[in-house]
Write a structure and sequence with these properties.
- Keywords: Membrane, Transmembrane, Transmembrane helix.
- 80% of the residues lie in helices and 0% in strands.
- Mean pLDDT is 87; it is low at 212-223.
- It has one domain (3-444).
- It has helices spanning 3-20, 25-39, 44-78, 81-93, 98-109, 115-133, 137-154, 159-168, 172-198, 216-227, 233-256, 262-270, 273-292, 294-328, 330-341, 347-360, 363-380, 385-395, 405-414, 418-444.
- The chain starts with a helix and ends with a helix.
- It is mainly α.
- The protein contains 20 helices and no strands.
Length: 447
């Protein structure tokens, strides 16, 4: 059987397992690797060796990074540092511009904190702001979601883009720079939809909280936000920014100074992604540990390890599939077929990620899987893998609907029914995806 046909059959198997039978992404990716390898003519032992080697290599490259990234997010979440960032953004731009403040807050908060959790944490804040400023809740909610969902697919140490960068062999500092730029455009496009489309519709999006006695929930939310004892802005932002700055400095010094220089050697150590995130976790404990409590510091650490495990397994299975694509030649064959077809290469990883996102719901799984399947394009077509990274992120924001947990968090926390969720959050996502594609095109002009 030709390797091209083996690849197509493997992708069909992947979609059937993940969508039709709802098998976990971890199992689906491993089974797909076995199918493609076997149908491509690899022996059983070669398939097993290739899968285990790819799995181990991926865990070794990003396993510790994911653990510390999740741990950092959990500490910022438990200490209410995310709420402080949001209030600081509102104070910076003024209450009348609260929608852009929410977009900025979402952009920052979702880097360390999982987007679903971040929205739950900040929902009382947007309800209180909506009541005080008379800005429609839908406008504030979608603005916040735009920032949250943008960095969720683009900026390490968020697990999805961190895993994609590892699978594509992209320097983490470079992924932060370009992913951060793309996330800005994606956030702005989503905010623009909220500000200029939803805002014109005013109060047509009725929340359950606006009806009868439930309106009292807004007052209690405002009280909770205003009276909450939050950490200082420095304590909230410093543990998040410190590891990112160290990683970026590591990338920058390597480009500027000789390899043997002292500053490069120092930054290569403290700016290594593993060490930088560990330093960020230590900074969190030192600055925010008292707020969390000694016992809870250890509980949070244990909880983060449990959460990181599933992310690492999915990512590593993606790495195993990537090794199969390399060893079997299936990935290279498909890359050559695409190059001959004349299709714009950026649209391939975008389309794969978009399809996966729409049918199975998880942006993280869409990014990881699309990056794995598209990685051979970088080598065969002579393209910079950062473009695949950006295109997959754009595709992973194609549409958010009923099979995405964030959709239900958004609707329930805002008191919306399913139809209202589709008319607000879901329709905002294609605009966000367009922002990501625009960013990808801009970057393609310079790399």
């Amino acid at each position: 059987m030709s390797v091209e046909l083996a690849f197509i059959i493997g992708v069909v198997v992947l979609l059937l397992l993940a969508i039709k039978f709802r098998v976990s992404a971890f199992i689906s990716l491993l089974v797909t690797g076995v199918v493609i390898g076997t149908l491509s003519g690899m022996s059983g032992l070669d398939v097993i060796d290739t899968i285990t080697n790819g799995f181990a290599k991926t865990v070794g490259s990003i396993g510790i990074i994911i653990i510390f990234g999740v741990m950092l997010g959990k500490y910022l979440e438990d200490s209410k540092a995310a709420n402080k960032m949001a209030l600081g953004a509102v104070g910076m731009v003024g209450e009348k511009n609260s929608s852009i403040a929410m977009a900025i807050s979402g952009y920052l908060v979702s880097i360390p904190v999982f987007s679903d959790v971040a929205y739950v944490m900040m929902a009382p804040l947007i309800k209180a702001i909506s009541k005080k400023t008379r800005i429609p809740l839908a406008v504030l909610g979608v603005s916040l979601a735009s920032g949250l969902l943008a960095t969720h697919v683009y900026v390490p140490p968020t697990p999805g883009p961190l895993a994609a960068a590892g699978l594509l062999g992209i320097d983490i500092g470079r992924a932060i720079l370009y992913g951060g730029f793309a996330a800005i455009l994606m956030t702005l496009f989503g905010w623009a939809f909220a500000q200029f489309v939803l805002n014109k519709k005013g109060d047509t999006f009725i929340s359950e909280f606006d009806k009868g006695a439930k309106g009292e929930m807004l007052a209690s939310a405002e009280e909770e936000v205003s009276e909450k004892d939050l950490p200082s802005m420095f304590s909230s932002l410093f543990p998040l920014l410190l590891p990112m700055i160290l990683i970026l400095l590591n990338t920058t010094t390597k480009a500027i100074f000789p390899e043997e220089s002292t500053i490069v050697r120092i930054m290569s150590f403290i700016g290594d992604s593993n060490i930088a995130l560990a330093i960020g976790v230590v900074a969190c404990i030192l600055l925010l540990g008292k707020r969390i409590g000694k016992e809870n510091v250890l509980k949070t650490m244990d909880g983060a390890l449990s959460e990181a495990g599933s992310i690492i397994f999915i990512t590593a299975s993606g790495g195993a599939l990537g090794e199969i694509l390399k060893a079997s030649g299936a990935g290279d064959a498909m890359a050559q077929a695409i190059s001959k077809s004349g299709l714009p290469f950026i649209l391939i990883p975008f389309a794969i990620a978009a399809l996966l996102k729409i049918v199975q719901g998880s942006g993280t799984v869409a990014v990881v899987t699309a990056a794995t399947l598209s990685a051979p394009l970088a080598t065969q077509l002579g393209m910079d893998p950062i473009l695949i990274f950006l295109a997959t992120g754009a595709g992973a924001r194609s549409f958010c609907h009923v099979n995405d947990s964030f959709f239900w968090v958004f609707t329930k926390m805002n008191g919306y029914d399913m139809k209202t969720g589709l008319r607000t959050l879901s329709f905002a996502n294609p605009f966000m995806a367009l922002g990501g594609l625009v960013a990808t095109f801009i970057v393609s002009l310079f790399v």
